[in-house]
Specification:
Strand content: 5-15%
Helix content: 55-70%
Radius of gyration: 20 Å
Strand order of the largest sheet: 1-2
Distance between the termini: 39 Å
Number of helices: 4
Number of strands: 2
């Protein structure tokens, strides 16, 4: 289970339904929904309790952090970099603090 890994953080990247639909249309992939209603219906099918479905809403409910993705790609990259830097700093601080505790308990510090 990923949650058992040290410093594991689940990050969700969210955008409004309308933005996701417009991006889908711009990709023009065969089989993609052509109307917002069809897109919404397909999303609802994927968000059932079926363990084989994507269940994105349930997954977002588990996320430790949510990054909003309403803008352009460079904005998303900037926000991802910011969040990753913040998480790395927190992990480093936690690890540093743990090292001191471990050395104290081991009698390595005066």
């Amino acid at each position: 289970m990923l949650r058992r890994l040290p410093h594991f953080v689940l990050i969700g990247v969210a955008a409004s339904r309308e933005v996701r639909f417009q991006r889908l249309l711009s990709r023009s992939r065969p089989g993609d929904p052509q109307t917002l209603e069809e897109f919404t219906r397909r999303e609802q099918q994927e968000n059932t309790e079926d363990p084989n479905a994507q269940r994105l809403e349930a997954t977002f409910g588990l996320a430790d952090r949510i990054i909003e993705n309403e803008g352009i790609l460079v904005d998303l990259h900037r926000e991802i970099d910011r969040v990753l830097e913040e998480l790395a700093e927190r992990a480093a601080a936690e690890t540093s603090g743990r090292d001191v505790v471990d050395r104290c308990e081991g009698g390595q510090l005066d």
